[in-house]
Amino acid sequence: MADKEGGPVTRARSQRSRSKEPTNVTPVTRASRGALSLEAVAEADNLFATPTSTQSQKSGRTESSMSINLNGNSPQNSSGSRVHSPQLSRAQEKDELHNLNDRLAKVLTQNSRYKEENSLLRAQLEHVAETTSADLQDQIDKYKIEMGKLRKCVDVVTAEKDREILAKEKLEAQLRDANSELNGLRSRVDDAESRMKQAEREARDRQQKLAEAEAVAKELDTERQRLEKQLNDALKKLASAQDSLERETLTKTDLENQLKTAMEDSEFQTSLLQSKIQRQSVSVTTVDSALRPQSGPDLAVYTSEFRQMMEDAQAELEENMERAYGQKIDNLEQRVGMQRNQIQDLGKALSDSQRDLKENQKDNKELMKQKQKLEADMEKMDHKYRQHQLESADRIKNLSAQASETMKLYQQLMEENRELQNINTEITAELRMYDNLLKEEEIRLGIQSPTQAEPSSRKRPRYSDGDGLGRSTTPVSRTNRLKRGMERRDLPSSQVRSVIKTSANKSIASGPVRILEVMPGKVIRLENQSDENIPLGEWTLKQKSELGAEVSHKFQKDQVISARSIISVYSASQSHVPHDGNTEILSGTLWISSTPLLTSLADTFGTEVAQYESSGDTVQMGDGEAGGEVSRVENRGVFGSLKSAIFG
């Protein structure tokens, strides 16, 4: 009820009474938020007091003064003379006085009640001031504890950043070692390839010699077969001659036997004829002697004719026998002579054939020895070639495996290097965000004024880490920042910061050669994805930035990219990088270091065969919303624990 009827008046009087009389309330400091808020409420109540309350105060003062004047029966004006009201009668004055006395009693009663309420309010105010100061002290202690945690977290972040920097330097050293090892492996592979090519050339020469030896052996084999065929023919002829000789010998024997038989038969027939002739002559003589006396000259003539006829017949028979058997004997003798000549010729041919056969056998033995020697040499050479081929294949396989492992390690190191760069960027962005949040919280708590929180007075030192990028690798100065406080719960949801990293690099190739990687301002790497060597003579590498800057590099005429290999073209600023002119090339062009960047590769005809778009890694600081998407930095290792320690 006191609040409804005269609350503002009572509070105003309590303010005036507090300003006049001493109080036991502890004076509220500048940093006590509760006491400041109560004083601000009291001042606002005094300032915005309603006209009704002001009029009631004036009327109360007027009534009290009038009641005092009436009780003393000496109303006076400002000059000390009594006040005469000709307009009021005595009864009216009494009624008015009675009313004024009633009102005065009410005012006094209300005044005593207000005093009691004022004392209660003072006690409550003292209690609130004590409670508020205790809460503020607790809050300051909490801030100190949280600042200690933040210092520890910042130390942990700084230590982790230093470790990441050391790990990055170590990885870069490993990357350089891997590059040198890769170059060594490539040189070893090139040496192995050259030795392999030399071995292949020697093997081809040996194969050619072997083919020639095989051709000679084949010709000798053909000649041997021809001689064997001739020998077989001669042997066949000899066998047939021996058969014919045997047949002729048998025929000769048969003819000789027949001749002997015929001669014996002729002798026998001759003897028979002679005996017959003798008997006939005897008989003729006998008949003649017997008939001579009887026949006379006619018989003698007849006998002489008969005798002459018999002699002619005998002569003719002998002539016929001599003609028949003599011709046969001559024929047999001629045939025997011819067969003897043939046998002698066949014997000579046989002896010649045997002599040629022996010579051919000798030659064949020598040729067989040479062939066996050549075959043994070829087997040894073939064995050595196969062994060398297997060793070369194993060596090339091992070198290829080592090269692939080195490339994998190189790519892994590159990925780790990129990740370290991204982490470094994220750490820098997050530390900058924490710096801004700490600065805002210090300004809000009054620990530091806005003029003291200028960014120029706390500029972070930077230095180049040797790669020309100027990344910040020095830990953040903590001399002033460790004194700051931050309370995440007091920030509105619109001030929640999020770190978003975007990267959009894209490689396009229409042929086997593609742009594998582009490090702005440092190096461009080309990769041959095919199994064949590709000439890059008169090919052109071009770079064009978003601002219109354009540079190019033209390869030499004898430049070749090997199968499944990588060529690195370094910028002219990277003269400290080792280069061999084959896989590591130092260009006379300064590559563009700004992004976005478009890199292209064109052949000798100017046709673009590969393209690489470098959009760069960008970090965006955005305002998040409650329940929105959380940045992936919040869940990363120490940063997640740091945010959980700060924000709860």
TrEMBL record:
<feature type="region of interest" description="Disordered">
    <location>
        <begin position="445"/>
        <end position="496"/>
    </location>
</feature>
<dbReference type="GO" id="GO:0051664">
    <property type="term" value="P:nuclear pore localization"/>
</dbReference>
<dbReference type="GO" id="GO:0005200">
    <property type="term" value="F:structural constituent of cytoskeleton"/>
</dbReference>
<feature type="domain" description="LTD">
    <location>
        <begin position="501"/>
        <end position="617"/>
    </location>
</feature>
<keyword id="KW-0539">Nucleus</keyword>
<dbReference type="GO" id="GO:0007097">
    <property type="term" value="P:nuclear migration"/>
</dbReference>
<dbReference type="GO" id="GO:0090435">
    <property type="term" value="P:protein localization to nuclear envelope"/>
</dbReference>
<dbReference type="InterPro" id="IPR039008">
    <property type="entry name" value="IF_rod_dom"/>
</dbReference>
<feature type="region of interest" description="Disordered">
    <location>
        <begin position="350"/>
        <end position="371"/>
    </location>
</feature>
<dbReference type="GO" id="GO:0005882">
    <property type="term" value="C:intermediate filament"/>
</dbReference>
<dbReference type="GO" id="GO:0006998">
    <property type="term" value="P:nuclear envelope organization"/>
</dbReference>
<dbReference type="Pfam" id="PF00038">
    <property type="entry name" value="Filament"/>
</dbReference>
<protein>
    <recommendedName>
        <fullName>LTD domain-containing protein</fullName>
    </recommendedName>
</protein>
<dbReference type="GO" id="GO:0031507">
    <property type="term" value="P:heterochromatin formation"/>
</dbReference>
<feature type="compositionally biased region" description="Basic and acidic residues">
    <location>
        <begin position="353"/>
        <end position="371"/>
    </location>
</feature>
<dbReference type="GO" id="GO:0005652">
    <property type="term" value="C:nuclear lamina"/>
</dbReference>
<dbReference type="InterPro" id="IPR036415">
    <property type="entry name" value="Lamin_tail_dom_sf"/>
</dbReference>
<feature type="compositionally biased region" description="Polar residues">
    <location>
        <begin position="49"/>
        <end position="90"/>
    </location>
</feature>
<dbReference type="Pfam" id="PF00932">
    <property type="entry name" value="LTD"/>
</dbReference>
<keyword id="KW-0175">Coiled coil</keyword>
<feature type="coiled-coil region">
    <location>
        <begin position="161"/>
        <end position="265"/>
    </location>
</feature>
<dbReference type="InterPro" id="IPR001322">
    <property type="entry name" value="Lamin_tail_dom"/>
</dbReference>
<feature type="region of interest" description="Disordered">
    <location>
        <begin position="1"/>
        <end position="94"/>
    </location>
</feature>
<keyword id="KW-0403">Intermediate filament</keyword>
